[in-house]
Amino acid sequence: MVGVPDSDLGQVPYALVQSSEDAHLDKETVRTFLAERVAAYKVPKTIEFVDRPLRDEAGKARRTAVRDELIARGTAQASR
Known about the structure:
- The protein is of the alpha+beta class.
- It has one domain: GMP Synthetase, Chain A, domain 3, CATH 3.30.300.30.
- It contains three helices and three strands; from the N terminus they run E-E-H-E-H-H.
- A hairpin with a 3-residue loop joins strand 1 and strand 2.
- The mean pLDDT is 85.
């Protein structure tokens, strides 16, 4: 999860899920899972499944790099 710029709210959550071929996940399953565990405003409206690793060699989440990439490709605003 990263926060991406939003013209109305300032920032909104954007979820990237690293999935494998074995995982049988869809966007609604992820949304339902999160809705049971976090506040409603924290449940992302946009969920993207990716194949690439979301962590660096040290095992740390690459949040800043992912957020910058999303902003650069314009996904943040267009995905609302």
